[in-house]
Amino acid sequence: MRWAALCVTACLLGCGGTPDAPPDPLAPYPESRFIVAEGQGPTALAAADDARVRLSAQIRARITARLTVETQQSSAGSVERSEQQIITETTFDRAELIRTPRALQRCPRPAAPDGCTAVAVLDRAEAGGALRDAAAEPSARFRAAAGPALSLGAERWIPFTTALRTAEFHFAELARAGWQRAAIVGGVPADFAEDRALYRALQGEAARRAAGLMIGVAPALGFDGPWAARVEDGLIDGFSRLGVAPHRGACRGLLARPSGEVVCRRGGLGPTCRLTLRVRLERCAGAELVTLELPGIAAVDPRDESRARTRLAGEIDGAKLAPLLAGSLSGVLPIARVDAAAR
User: Which domains does the chain have, with CATH numbers?
Assistant: First the structure.
């Protein structure tokens, strides 16, 4: 027996001293072609689900990192921040593209919280192709709206704004797929880069047109002196926050005619004062463009009406009026969108 053991030892030493290393189970999935994530759970199914979640989170992290780099390199920082706000709130939802090979599932300790392991893999080329196909239709619709908008005359505010909002809607959809593709394949695809360039051009044109909009604010009707002045000042400040050029008085582009009233009543919580405000926006020739019915602004104070009026007066300023104006004007004029104005 001892001789037999020595012979085995000698054979092992002669063959290099150690047995061959087990093959790497991830060798068929190189980083250049696949994104891989490992998961754990008490069952093989739970481990596979965990692996899929981790792979999706990995893609989301890559999207965020790429967007941060793009923001730092871009001169149109506000556009990139808007894109990042849209995209990083969306997880990778193409679950059918994520595989969990049975050969890579192990359960050495079943029922333990981490007793099973699994691996999720995503084929970069397959996923990139699927996302490209998914973005094809919204890309075509985006270009169909954005291209003609850039050639519309300077005074055609409503047609331009209609095309602008349509283009923004479709760009948000195609950008989700575009940034996911960029994170998966490792670079911004050429077709998505073209869409982004057109989107930036459209946003730049919208900002230029908004800055050229000169809105005069006429005297506010229906209010007493102090309230009228406060409403007019609030509108001027609110319009300026939307990127247009407001002024008091004469019409040099568009004219805003505000009207409304302040009504105070006693209720269960005490005196409540409410301000209602309408703004008729018209061209200098007198033709109405749109009439804005802004939501009522109210304030209550349990002590007396005078204090309720004071509280209400504090609500009439540009910061609070800007999102209300944007909500009514974003479909008519190329101003900042409602969500951007509200932040």
Answer: 29-123 (no CATH), 125-211 (no CATH), 214-342 (3.40.50.10610)
